[in-house]
């Protein structure tokens, strides 16, 4: 087999045999009974399951004042997701750009392309995990999948509930925190496969009366597909090993000449529950290099690391028959540690090429406190209200020491004056202190009696006030109606949100990418309608929406600026169908179609308006489908596919179009192959080995004309730093051992 199918089997088989011997004496009965129950639920019953993310309270999925997609643990297993980022490949209305690098992925929700921040909140059990300095959500690739009960994906603005940065939606991971009986539950997954994939993912939960403890560990390793790198000019490996570009640095293989960008992501969590109290500790280590992000003639893959630490105490209490309280105190750190480094090459003021090596560091922390109350004012009226206080200690500019900038021919790796890594201690003169405060009220009022209807009808209204000591205050609100008419449900929803300028955008610029301390928050307003029809075996829905965004932040080379407006109209169609072909054979089918029509004001680099046009990198048409076939409860096969239409790129991208593509994945699961609770899964990604691309992020300005040395000895290579196209991996095979008892 070729390199794409090379498996390292020795260690894997040893682990497999040891676990089989251990697990063959254990029973997976409780796990299987829970799985059978969920698989037997009708679509009507699934619509009645409780969620918490739409309003920060428990409510029926069908009653939530938002379009919400729930991805269950069973679907995660059946579809074979390797990490949470892969979920976005199956979500409607979202365009994805994956670099496998420092900005690991960018999901553009509902037509809104944003390169330097995330337009959604990522939470684990309601605890916000967006990076304190970047507002990135790349640590999603370091979250254990074995610990997940389900994932709630909320579409639409949610700032009136959660505060800033829920501009387009929320992703809330709900973990397994309890079990029906006292005892121990263990779930594990060990995988190996193409592109140096190695995954060890384990979750442990112990329960005794009111006492519970949960432990989770994940190591997820992988690398780029070396063959697909040849598909785009400035990811071709030949640039990385060209001595005329990098000189003697190539004699130091730890910083230059390596083809690939190895990933090693680690997640460790511990949770202790006693009665209504919880102590949680989380550590996420994101280590990716620069992946496909930057042109290989301008930057070596290098080392890029983000570390995130979180410690919190949370307590819930029933203060009376009508009032419940939830309190949380949290300490957090979000760092770019000083091991992050880069080797860069570019022209000086006279066009002469030079190269230099440097380190990157950003240290950030926060203390926060949250107090929420649930009030059942009457049988028809519920109120959710709360307060937030957060003190953020943020870095301004990067700690960024560089060695001398030298012509490649003058570099000797043994004698080059490498800089010392920056001291891992915050410098007072390079700090900013932000105080964030917020207060909100959400109400839900049942109006069925006013309409003289036996069906459920609700009015929802919420308002929130947030104040930031740096950029000021903002009000946001949302309002909506949710009604049920037999098998039909309808939702009419309006919501507002704000997106903070990040500390990186405000302070953290360098020569190639400026910053601006005068940015204002972006503001969005969304009006949408949702209707669906549900019966036991069939569901379909229609979700049109219109989004208006003001004070959009555009990232110009000199620095980001607030410029213009964006208007987005779109809709999603979805359908689900369950088929009982026989007593042993069942099928689940789902499909989505998404349409987006976008418009934004266009400006020159001098901030002069030049008309209107489409928002770049957004496909007008997207189609997703999947089918899962289940033979008894011992075997399932899931085929997923997606068609992404052609995309017009951003104006700074010389490659003006990204072609449409179709890809499909197949995942086969046998949960009890060797013994009860010990099984295998085989996943084939990009089943037909399609050659396809995602659009580049940021300005995506490299172009695709081959580089060369001109007659004056000047290197004429990539036109910018960020690659215009991101070649995606070819066919990949991953084999996983699963253990559940």
Write the layout of secondary structure elements.
Elements: H1 10-23, H2 29-40, H3 43-47, E1 50-51, E2 59-60, E3 67-72, H4 73-79, E4 94-98, E5 105-109, E6 120-124, E7 127-128, E8 148-155, H5 159-162, E9 169-175, E10 183-193, E11 197-208, E12 211-222, H6 243-246, E13 263-274, E14 277-287, E15 305-318, E16 323-335, E17 341-347, E18 353-359, E19 365-376, E20 381-395, E21 431-446, E22 457-468, E23 472-485, E24 488-499, H7 503-507, E25 522-534, E26 538-550, E27 553-556, E28 559-562, E29 565-580, E30 585-603, E31 609-613, E32 621-631, E33 635-644, E34 647-648, E35 657-658, E36 661-675, E37 678-685, E38 693-695, E39 708-709, E40 715-716, E41 725-727, E42 732-740
Parallel strand pairs: 6-9
Antiparallel strand pairs: 1-2, 3-8, 4-5, 6-7, 8-9, 10-11, 10-42, 11-12, 12-13, 13-14, 14-15, 15-16, 16-19, 17-18, 19-20, 20-21, 21-22, 22-23, 23-24, 24-25, 25-26, 26-29, 27-28, 29-30, 30-31, 30-32, 32-33, 33-36, 34-35, 36-37, 37-42, 38-41, 39-40
Keywords:
five-stranded mixed β-sheet; single chain; 741 residues; mainly beta; 22-stranded antiparallel barrel
Helix content: under 10%
Distance separating the two termini: 35 Å
Q: How many beta-strand segments?
A: 42
DSSP summary: helix tally: 7
| Helix vs. strand class | mainly beta
Largest sheet features: 22 strands, antiparallel, barrel
Compute the gyration radius: what is it? 26 Å
Mean pLDDT: 91
The low-confidence runs, each spanning 5 or more residues with pLDDT under 50, are 1-38
Shape label: globular
How much beta, percentage-wise? over 45%
């Amino acid at each position: 087999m070729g390199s794409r199918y090379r498996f390292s089997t020795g260690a894997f088989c040893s682990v497999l045999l040891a676990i089989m011997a251990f697990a063959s004496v254990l029973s997976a009965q409780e796990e299987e009974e829970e799985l059978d129950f969920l698989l037997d639920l009708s679509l009507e019953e699934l619509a009645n399951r409780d969620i918490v993310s739409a309003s920060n309270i428990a409510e029926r999925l069908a009653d939530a004042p938002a379009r919400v997609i729930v991805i269950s643990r069973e679907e995660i297993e059946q579809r074979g997701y390797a990490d949470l980022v892969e979920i976005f490949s199956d979500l409607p209305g979202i365009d994805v750009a994956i670099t496998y690098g420092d900005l690991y992925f960018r999901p553009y929700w509902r037509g809104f392309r944003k390169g330097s921040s995330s337009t959604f909140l990522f939470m684990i059990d309601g605890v916000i995990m967006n990076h304190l300095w970047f507002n990135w959500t790349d640590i999603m690739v370091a979250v254990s999948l074995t610990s997940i009960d389900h994932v709630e994906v909320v579409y639409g603005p949610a700032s009136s509930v959660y505060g800033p940065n829920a501009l387009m939606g929320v992703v809330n991971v709900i973990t397994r925190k309890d079990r029906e009986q006292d005892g121990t539950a263990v779930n594990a997954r060990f995988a190996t496969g193409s592109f140096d994939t190695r995954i060890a993912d384990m979750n442990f939960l112990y329960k005794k009366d009111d006492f519970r403890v949960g432990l989770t560990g994940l190591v997820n390793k992988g690398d780029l597909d070396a063959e697909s790198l040849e598909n785009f000019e400035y990811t071709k490996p030949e640039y990385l090993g060209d001595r005329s570009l990098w000189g003697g640095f190539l004699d130091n293989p730890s910083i230059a000449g390596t083809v690939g960008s190895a990933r090693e992501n680690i997640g460790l969590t511990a949770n202790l529950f006693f009665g209504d109290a919880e102590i949680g500790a989380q550590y996420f280590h994101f280590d990716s290099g620069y992946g496909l992000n930057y042109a290989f003639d301008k930057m070596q893959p290098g080392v890029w690391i983000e570390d995130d630490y979180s410690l919190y105490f949370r307590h819930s209490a029933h203060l009376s028959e009508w009032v419940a309280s939830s309190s949380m105190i949290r300490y957090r750190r979000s760092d770019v540690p000083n091991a992050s480094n880069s080797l860069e090459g570019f022209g000086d003021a006279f066009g002469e090429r030079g190269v230099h090596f440097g380190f990157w560091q950003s240290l950030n922390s926060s203390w926060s406190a949250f107090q929420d109350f649930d009030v059942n004012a009457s049988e028809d009226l519920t109120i959710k209200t709360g307060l937030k206080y957060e003190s953020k200690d943020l870095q301004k500019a990067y700690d960024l020491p560089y060695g001398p900038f030298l012509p490649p021919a003058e570099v000797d790796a043994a004698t080059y004056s490498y800089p010392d890594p920056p001291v891992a201690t915050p410098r007072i003169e390079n700090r900013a202190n932000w105080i964030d405060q917020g207060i909100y009220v959400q109400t839900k009022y049942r109006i069925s009696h006013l309409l003289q209807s036996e069906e459920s009808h609700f009015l929802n209204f919420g308002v929130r006030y947030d104040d930031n000591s740096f950029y000021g205050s903002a009000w946001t609100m949302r309002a909506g109606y949710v009604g049920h008419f037999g098998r039909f449900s309808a939702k009419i929803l309006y919501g507002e949100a704000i997106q903070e300028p990040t500390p990186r955008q405000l302070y953290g610029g360098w020569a190639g990418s400026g910053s601006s301390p005068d940015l204002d928050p972006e503001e969005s307003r969304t009006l949408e309608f949702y209707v669906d029809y549900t019966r036991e075996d069939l569901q379909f829905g229609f979700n049109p929406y219109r989004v208006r965004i003001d004070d959009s932040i555009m990232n110009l080379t000199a620095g980001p600026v607030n410029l213009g407006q964006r208007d987005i109209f779109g809709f999603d169609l979805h359908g689900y169908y369950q088929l009982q072909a026989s007593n042993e054979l069942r099928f689940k089918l789902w499909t989505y179609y998404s349409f987006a029509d976008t418009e934004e004001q266009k400006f020159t680099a001098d901030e002069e308006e030049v008309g209107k046009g489409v928002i770049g990198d957004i496909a007008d048409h997207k189609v997703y489908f999947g089918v899962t076939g289940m033979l008894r409860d011992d075997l399932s096969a899931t085929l997923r596919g997606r068609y992404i239409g052609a995309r017009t790129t951003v104006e700074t991208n010389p490659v003006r179009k990204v072609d449409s593509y179709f890809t499909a994945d197949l995942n086969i699961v046998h949960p009890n192959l060797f013994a009860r609770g010990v099984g295998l899964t085989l996943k084939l990604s990009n089943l037909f080995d399609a050659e396809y691309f995602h659009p580049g992020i940021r300005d995506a300005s490299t172009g695709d004309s081959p580089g060369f040395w001109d007659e004056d000895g000047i290197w004429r290579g990539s036109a910018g730093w960020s690659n215009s196209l991101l070649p995606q991996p070819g066919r990949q095979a991953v084999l996983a051992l699963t253990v559940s008892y």
